[in-house]
Known about the structure:
Helix content: under 10%
Strand content: over 45%
Number of strands: 11
Amino acid sequence: QVKLVESGGALVQAGGSLRLSCAASGIIFNRYTMGWYRQAPGKQRELVAAIFSGGSTNTADSVKGRFTISRDNAKNTVYLQMNTLKPEDTAVYYCNARAVGIVGYNYWGQGTQVTVSS
């Protein structure tokens, strides 16, 4: 059974920092692209950042320079370091695991709430 368990969401003031974690189980972690998505009320879910099995990353322009994605393959965990948070970063953040080269193996966590107050 595949599980993605996010943690680290909180209420924080603008300018503050948070680190989200996503612990994965039930998958061969280093064969998956891991990503963080977010969904604000009334908006579509959007990609925040992704990290490929080889370690290269892709980061949305809206968070570039403020957010950093990383992974620890030994711990089956992906992280999202969020600095200089803004009220517009308020959303539910979801962890995603997508198998490399195999269609249909795509998993989501339950989400963690990040709220940034002005």
